[in-house]
Structure formats: C-alpha cells, structure tokens
Amino acid sequence: MAGIYGVKLYGRRRLSAVSVLAGCMVCVLAAGCGGNKDAGVSANGAMGPMPVQVQVIESRPITNSTEYLSIVKSRHSATINPQVEGQITRIFVRSGDRVAAGTPLLQIDPLKQEATVNSQEAARAAQEANMRMAKINLDRAKALSDAKVISRSDLDNAQTNYDSAVAQLKSLEQQVQQQQVELHYYRVSAPMAGIVGDIPVRIGDRVAVTTVLTTVDEPGAMEVYIYVPASRAKELRVGLPVKLLDENGVVRTATSITFVSPQADQDTQTILAKAAVPNVNANLRIDQQVRAQVDWGTLQGPVVPVLAVQRINGEFFVFVAVNEGKGAVARQRLVKLGEVSGNDYAVLDGLKAGDHLIDRKSTRLNSSHLGI
Q: What is the rounded distance in angstroms from the CA atom of residue 115 to the CA atom of residue 286?
C-alpha cells in the first residue's frame, strides 16, 4: 500500500507546527553530522520514526444536509395568453404596475369581430320579423279552422311554420351571444389583483392563442421549486426542513417542504419539491435563483477536518497512524465522505471513532524525508 512510513506518536495531544518543523530541522542537521536513531536516522542510514501531529477521530451528531439550486415562484401567479388571434392595438399597463381584478391590460383589434356581431344581430332581427309573421298566420289559421273554412292540415302547417321560426330565432340569439362573448376576449383583463410582469409584445404585433402577453403575480406569498435527484426519492418527504441561503451562506429564512411530485422529470431525472416562503421583507423576487439547503436528518458518526483529506482520481484519502507491533506506522486510507458540516466532513466509511488521524501538514513537512 502506498504511503507507509514510520512515525513517532506523542499520545493523543497535537504537536504544534513549529515543533514538527523544528523536529524535521533537527533530523536534517543530525543526518548531516552522522546522525543517530533518535533524530530519525539509524546508525546504518535507515530512516527512523518521524514525529507528526495526530488527533483522535471523534464521533458527534452531524446534520446530514444537501444544497440545491432552486427557483422562487409566486404561489398565486397567472400567465396571460390571448384567447383569440389578432393584432395588438393598445397596451393599457406597464411592467410593475399593480392592478385589480378585471383591469384591462391589452386590446386586440376587434373590428372584424364587431362586424361579425353586427351581422349576427341583423340576422336575428330579420328572424324576429319572420317569427312575428308566422305568429300572425298561425292565429289566422286557427280562426279559419274554427269556422271550418280551412282544413286541419292547413292549421298544422301554420303551426309548424311558427315553431320553426321560434327555434331559428333562438339559434340566432345563441350565435349572437357567442359572438359577443368572443368580442369580449379582444380586451385582455387581469384575472386577479397583483403585479404586472414583463410585457414582451408591442403595439402592432400579431398574437396567437399560444403567445404569452404578460404575467400577473400576487405579491407576498411565494414558494421555491427545488429539483432533487431521483436517487434520493426515498428520503424526500413533506415536512423536511429547508433553509434558504444567500450568496454568503447566511440563512435567509427557514421553511419546510410542502409538496413532493409523484413523478420524476424525464429529461433531468429530478423530482420537484416545493417549500413555502413567507417573503415578509420582500427580499426575494419571482424567478430568482437561491440556494436551498435540505436537512435530511441527524446522524452520529466520525468527522475529519476538510484540510486533512486528499483527493486522488476522484476518491478521498486520509493518513492514519496504525500500531503494528514494532511501532506506529502511517497508512493512507480510502474513506467515503458525506456532506461538509462547518469545517469537517462526515465520514460514512473507512474510519471510526478513536482512530488516530495524521495532520496533512505533518506529511507535507516530512515528505522530503519520507519519500512520499
């Protein structure tokens, strides 16, 4: 195994870097003057034990947490699309305006639709006249039938003509009402009270039903969309604590997960989780990216300082002092690490409480003597 060398342990206390450096200098001087075994070189020239700094691995409660990049969304937000096609003729608001429900936002050219409504209303008026005439003919036919002047079939024909005229009038009235409702769609209004978002269209633009005109967001209540890898789906649940951090790692606000999607995104293989954000101080903006720290729970286990870890080819290693009968030797050990908590890594595998960890500073100071 790479990285095996002799060490001299001084119990569980840590030596200062100065003492280690001084020890190394003594070793060099002693080697130049003939040396002795206590100075790190034996009489036959072999390398002897070297003094290093060690610390005992401790076990302590560790918060198992992971940071994810999340997106802030309004809990009450509406994306405004037109329900008809046409050309924008007026824009009544600007981005950032506060509007009430029903406030006009944009106007789509209604001239063609107004002509359609007028045509339908004229057809309805003509049909009303036909219905009135059919009613007069029916009344006359009833009087003549009572006087035995016309046959029963003539009365039936007059009744049929009147019923048909009434039905056709009702159909035209429904068409007029439908066209009037569609005419209403040419003026786009706010569906709720809120703040107008970006307006990407301009006067003169032709829009379709798929065109995004703007958004209306209700201020205050927000939520963050957190995209968690599907590999952690079993751990993800409603109620998990979440902390939103600023760019310096300071906690903005604390919340918890309120929703977990039952499906994974097919493209990213992530699961959407949502957490409510009060945003009382209005220091967050819609579509803003923030760091969300999900706390999975607390575990008891060993920890190692971040600076004591070496990364080689994507794997993590530390040096530990191991007593192998003739004395303590330093071995490079592969470890599996968890998340960083403060200045320490949580150790998932490879170390246990009570092991003696060698400070990386010691190995660097002594590397010229140890050949590592």
A: 41
17-32 vs 360-370: helix axis angle to the nearest 10?
Answer: 10
Q: What are phi and psi of 275, to 5 degrees?
A: -135, 130
The Cβ of residue 69 has, within 10 Å, a number of other Cβ atoms equal to: 10
Instruction: Please state, rounded to an integer, the average pLDDT across all residues of the chain.
Output: 81
pLDDT tens, position by position, 203-240: 999 999 999 999 998 877 789 999 999 998 898 999 99
Question: Rounded CA gap, 220 and 8, in Å?
Answer: 63
Do strands 344-349 and 356-358 pair parallel, antiparallel, or not at all (unpaired)?
A: unpaired
Instruction: Give the residue among 256, 221, 262 at the shortest CA–CA distance from 242.
Output: 256
- Residue 183, SS3? helix
Q: CA-to-CA distance for 95 and 116, rounded, in angstroms?
A: 33
Sort residue 163 into left (φ over 0), alpha (ψ -120 to 50) or beta. Answer: alpha
Alpha helix (H) residue ranges in the chain: 17-32, 111-146, 152-184, 360-370
- What lies within 8 Å, CB to CB, of 19 at 6+ separation is 51
What single-letter DSSP state applies at residue 359?
Answer: P
- Rounded to whole angstroms, the Cα distance separating 246 from 224 reads 14
Backbone angles phi, psi at 193, to 5 degrees: -75, 140
Indicate the DSSP class of residue 151.
Answer: -
Classify residue 351 as exposed, middle or buried by CB count within 10 Å of its CB (0-12, 13-18, 19+): buried
Q: How is residue 45 written in tokens?
A: 């020239």
Contact between 110 and 183 under an 8 Å Cβ cutoff? The reply is yes
List of residues 6+ apart from 247 with CB closer than 8 A:
291
For residue 271, give the 3-state DSSP assignment. strand
Which pLDDT does position 52 carry in this prediction? 73
Worst-scoring range by mean pLDDT, 137-141, 299-303, 307-311? 299-303
Contacts of 129 (CB under 8 A, 6+ apart): none
In order of 126, 127, 171, 313, the CA distances from 168 in angstroms are 11, 7, 5, 83
What tokens appear for 345 in the block? 């890594």
Contact partners, residue 70, CB within 8 Å, separation at least 6 = 224, 225, 226, 227, 244, 289, 290, 291, 292
